[in-house]
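name: query_chain
kind: protein
chains: 1
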Amino acid sequence: MNEYSTLYNTRSGKKWMKTGVSRRAGVVVPLFSIRSKRSTGTGEIPDLRYVIDWLNQTGMSILQLLPLNELSYDNSPYNAISTFALEPMYLCLSKLKDTSASQFRKEISDAKKIYSPVNGKTNYGIRNAKMSLLKKIFNSCDLTENRSFEKYISENFHWLKYYCIYKILCSLNPGKSWHDWDLKYKYIIPAIAEKILHEYKHEVKFYSWIQWQLYEQMKSLKRYAKKKQVLLMGDIPFLVSRNSSDVWAYKNYFKLSLSSGAPPDMYFSKGQKWGMPPYNWENIVADNYGYIKRRLKYAENFYDLFRIDHFVGLFRVWTIKLDTSKESGGLIGKFDPEEMHDWEDHAKKIIDVMLESTSMMPCAEDLGTVPEVSGKVLREYGITGINVQRWEKKFSNKIEFIDPEKYRVNSVATVSTHDSSPLTIWFEDEAGTIDKYLFQSLCEKIGIKGEKYKQVLSKLFENDSSEQNRFRWKKNLKGVFEVLNIVNPDKNSAGELINMFLNSFREKEIFLEYIGITNLKKSKADHEFVLKSLEKISASNSVFCINLITEYLFLDIDILKKYSTKDYRINIPGIVSENNWTQTLPVMLEELGNMKINSLLKKINMQAQRK
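structure:
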């Protein structure tokens, strides 16, 4: 414990004093993925009580949620239309405060049937259906002298005002983004804003009422979690949708001619272009970081900890001109700030504001192209980063997976993320492979094309390479020098090729040996594989070990057989797909408490001395 107590002496020490420094285990839950028998269409805030009870039963104490912010057109929780407003479809209609939905019981029942998940995928039609029901319920209730509601509006009007106006203008301009609105609405002045608030006061009250109801249900959940000694971790999206109330209302806080993204790496050969505008930090600083402070203060009502999404973006963000072709992805861009010597100071100023602005403890998502200074800053501040089991490697003349006992103390250990494939699919389809387009790009740089390119492929890779744009190395390759002789790269490209090879050749066999499986020819991710992987990550040195709920459920042999498929992942980054953000669990929440795997999960956590 002495090693963990050093966290008390960091800049986040007061936050650690509040939560206590102890080895904890937890679960990541996308609310759209879960549902109970009471749910209408998708998971609802009160449903999370089942998960909290399950955490108690299995020896865990952190419930991490993906962002709950109001969704945009693509249903991505990281592309929200507001950094304050929560998503209305997560409301439980039978638990609305100071009102009754009993007269709409039949319509609610019909919505449950019509908008239940289809083929294991969330039916987002429930969003409009629920808004329609909420409008009817709102119109039927009496809010006269409702002091709780009035107090909520008074305390949150700084953001509710513009959010409500934005929602009203969206309804008046169906199908249009704010960029295409009439000039008087696109660049709204205070007089026009006040006019809208007056003319549409019923709508303003309706949208405010919905957010109040969400606020009340989240506050109730937090009280329940505290009673059960479970910490709630909220995911705070680093960026916000270009077509959002935030960007529309505070244009000066964003660089609208640019798109945020990520530079090319070994997992995304073309990089990524996300579309969300990067921040104009000069203007945010000039406002004394008010935008950041207000966001965190509101989230504090719901969470004990918060995850800083895209933490590396606090140092610098990869920016791409908005008019750059979609095909080039994130290839053509630059960092902002551009100069490396500015990055550390830039990040520290923002982190200092975050620590001063909230009682919540920060945790960081430090994945992607990580600047060298990031680790130093995380240690100094005592903020946890993320150690993903499959990516924690070192190289000599082959891959070596890092012993989990050598993971950072200030980290969250996990076997996968919502942006990666599940552990089982990684092992079966991706381990031992490289990105097709990354290798193709390297060959093009050194002039290997046409027939010569085909010959190189036939010498290096299996004929039955993965369908997911991956090339699988031939098992009989003798080493990196044979690969270099076949490709014959120039001096600049040799290092890139060596890194590709060493990072992936014989990856399956080496990983099996690493987790303690003696059958190194095992090709299927069976129960033993899942168990050994979870035991290994749980035993890590990391202060927290938090896994996606699906990774735990794969300990159930029947679930593993039926649902461990290529489609069973939450998100493929960098693309808009109807399959992203639609995954639903194969069990109802009422079943969680009776699962046979629960005693096994508790045993894993007890052996790892986690709680």
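note: The radius of gyration is 25 Å.
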